[in-house]
Specification:
- The protein is an alpha+beta fold.
- It folds into 2 domains: 151 residues, no CATH class; 181 residues, no CATH class.
- 40% of the residues lie in helices and 11% in strands.
- The chain has 16 helices and 10 strands.
- It has a 4-stranded antiparallel β-sheet with strand order 1-2-7-4, sandwiched between helices.
- Strand 8 and strand 9 form a beta hairpin.
- Helix 10 packs across helix 12, helix 12 packs parallel to helix 14 and helix 15 packs antiparallel against helix 16.
- 43% of the residues are buried.
- The mean pLDDT is 93.
Length: 375
Amino acid sequence: MNTKHPEKIIKQHAYNLGFDIVGIATSEPFYRDEKESISRIRNGFMGDMPWYNEERVHKANHPEILLPEAKSIISLGISYFKDTRNNINNEYIGKIAQYAWGKDYHFVIKSKLNTLVDQLSTIFEDDFKTRIFVDDGPMNDRAVAERAGIGWFGKNTNILTTKHGSWVFLSQILTTLKLKPDKPLKKNCGNCIKCIDKCPTNAIIAPYKIDARKCIAYLTIEHRGAIPIELRPHIQNWIFGCDICQEVCPVNEDVEATKEDDFISTHNYSLEFLISLLEISEEKFRILFKNSAIKRAKRVGLQRNICIALGNIKDPKAIPALAKALNSNEILIRQHAAWALGQMKNKSALNILNSAIKKENSIEVISEIELALKN
């Protein structure tokens, strides 16, 4: 490599493309993180995500498997923070985790990474190889970010950065280029446990340990089955993901807002919009969320989540839509619609449930209706 100070050149090009933080790490294995991840799997803390297995964890923490002869990892962060203080407590708005407000970050960041790699190819004369990662490949992005000095692990397991808090998307370029690594930050959360105290489902079972089976983000995105009844009231009106442990984090106070237009959205998940989504067809769902991370929950999952949100909002305007949902072809939606109607404590809702149980043939749905009528 004939170019002097290649690390500075790489970082400047990344900043020019819109990345907010750039650090460089060695490509040595992440043994500590591998051990911790395997422990989480074996303890059942990862829930029902069959794709997240020990084989994947091993690959994620061994860069040499992902790219033979890899020598360095370029770690990049880009903010997605939007100021929500004016609507964060509005109980009549369906809540979406901020990361999913705008265009699917995979599309946005992969485009930037590919451009960056192309630029580096014209700068460096060496014949080097690269491989990019944006959360959808087997790369331990948080372990890389910590080693590269991007940020430090928070007790909610998010990476916390100095200027942008935890509101950052992480990505990586694994490369055979030999680069000078940055040093990890000497920071931690101290005695603060706000994220632990404020988690409504007690998903953060200890500092740096999350039981995904209780996490609202996991339940509303990754989980495909019925959401445990005892957790439904605590999900509040989150219909995709959850930001509570980030909203209460002191490090996230007064952070800089994103400069990336693709991460900003004008969507307003009003009560009326939630009701319309509850009735949306598969075709319209795919069109509406084609470029959104929300599509990961799938239509049935999102409608299940909306039923829970409407049950917690308790606005009788939602009763007709929930009554229609009781006739859905999907057992999962009928189950959660029954629960939501039971939360209304409304004579009309109870009449709908009494009528529905007479023609229902699913044991799961009948059980939900019976519990809803008792409560």
